[in-house]
Amino acid sequence: MFKANQPNSYVPSKSVAIRPEVVSDVGQNQQIRINIPSFTAFLDPNQTFIKCDLEMKDCRGQLVPDPNGGVHSLFRNVLYRDGNNATTLELNEDYNANKSLLNHITQTPSTIHKRELFAGVQNSIGDTGDEQTLYYAQRSVQGGSTATSPDETKRGTNKVEIQTQLNSGIWKQGNILPVSAMNGMRVQIDTEDVLRSCQYVDLLGEFSNKQVVPIIMTTADIAVGAQLRNAQANYAVETNLDLVKNPFAINDILYGSESTGAGQQQLGSIQGFYEATGAKLGITYVPLRANSGGTTVALTQNTSVLFYKMADRQVALDFYLPTDGGGNVKNGRQEAPSYVLSNIEMVCQSVQPPASYVEGLLRASQTEKGVSFDIMSYELYRHNQSNTAGLFQCQIPTLMKRAKSLFSQPLSITGARNLATSSLSGIVDDAQNYEWIWGTNHYPSRLVPLQRYSQEKGTNGTFGSEALHISELQKAVVNVNEPVRNLHLLKDHFCISRSLTKYGQIMDLSTQTLSLRIDYGTGTEQKLFNNYVYGLRRITISRGQVMAE
């Protein structure tokens, strides 16, 4: 095959932008279908990429795509078929989780910066949370002047331009792709649910895993039975938090309780912010309660706390809005958070190889032997683990005959679909050791220890690492043609891996049963194992037909 980077050759080329079959904005749980026509002839896979605009919608706080993948976190499955829609060339199931697995170990400071520029990765929000970020505009006003004239402006969002290559074998195999001989090519991308693909970013550049953010109130005591909904359009409360470090958002539900957490109650729907005494944060809100019902628990100045719940930010909410300042209210609604992909197109680099090569390839594609090329791809086998602790064996019913490496990514079922945590990162959950079993053979020849990943090394929150596990991971990654650049914080991006071959060889896994055995000590979470079997997939064009094996 003709290489995309053929040395000492001038290859004319041009960019072709191809729009989806249905040109419209795309949100969660939808499809993007792109038909690359045969007249594009030959494509340079290294210079072919997805381009679009990405915007977050209806968010309370700063919701961003999971930073493990950026825009790739929004793509659940990616499917490639020939132009006749007869043959599956490649299927990347759970594409976003797989991308998350490889992103961490292959990144450098330079690639991190590149992903921020082109792939929509938002790694932090600075040290106050008030600055302009990739997806959000800076607050136009820090706060209103008084409780009666608060700033009720919702924080604006930015459209982020995306330009990134899909992490699929079809685009990474290095050869010019003969699209004309395949009668074109079809690309289908299934988008992911927002609850699995996105995270809320917390203040101070950290991604939140908190359910509440407590703020000590400084306003006067709030007595039992006070703050009737029908008595006033809104109420105000002051905090001891600096105005610029406001973790709340318009339409958040505000809660109050004693400092111990006892006596929790809903106060109301946040309507605005203002500058309280000493440049502190003041909050105005409309009560969420029965028409005449007041507070049920007394809140005491400098003792009680105010907070929001992360769970509230994940769902649509009904609330009350003041109308005329006289106590009249009406039902309002805050939609659940989402995202929108717009101006979608696939930018393809169409190239013109030498005429002799084109003639030879087209002639060969009509013969019985045909034209073949290999891509590095994977098959996915999922396995649910209902038991959280003890010995567990995961069956992997693969029949792959040209296998290269194995990766098993244990994802939390307990913590999945939660915007406070990543749903795409593997977890340790007190795993003690593991081994791969193929037939009667055990790989490696002794159990691989994992205990140190669960052993805190001191008071700084760092954990140990296991050299043999890391060595196995490195060999497996290199064997699928990916570079190993980062071995930091593997506990937070956990996976179990095994290289099956050396020196470019392959292994036939179809002759015996494959399984993974793991001992979980005092594990506490139910897990979904994403088992990726990496190997070579051959695409053959013969007598005008496209086949894949």
Description:
There is one protein chain. This protein has helices at 95-106, 109-118, 169-172, 194-197, 355-364, 467-478; strands at 13-18, 31-36, 42-43, 49-57, 62-65, 75-82, 88-92, 160-164, 177-178, 185-191, 198-201, 215-216, 235-242, 253-257, 265-276, 280-287, 305-307, 317-322, 329-334, 338-351, 371-385, 390-396, 403-412, 431-438, 441-449, 496-499, 514-520, 527-542, 545-548. The protein has 549 residues and is mostly beta strands. The chain folds into 3 domains: 1-206 and 336-364, Adenovirus Type 2 Hexon, domain 4; 212-308, Thrombin, subunit H, CATH 2.40.10; 367-549, Distorted Sandwich (Adenovirus Type 2 Hexon, domain 4), CATH 2.70.9. The strands form 7 sheets. Strands 1, 3, 4, 8, 9 and 20 form a 6-stranded antiparallel β-sheet that branches. It is globular, with a radius of gyration of 27 Å. Mean pLDDT is 88; it is low at 203-211 and 323-328.
Q: Looking at the structure, what is the overall shape?
A: globular
Annotation, overall tally of beta strands: 29
Strand portion: 35-45%
Rounded mean pLDDT is 88
> Ranges with pLDDT <50 over ≥5 residues?
203-211, 323-328
Query: Which architecture of the largest domain would the CATH scheme give at its second level?
Result: Distorted Sandwich
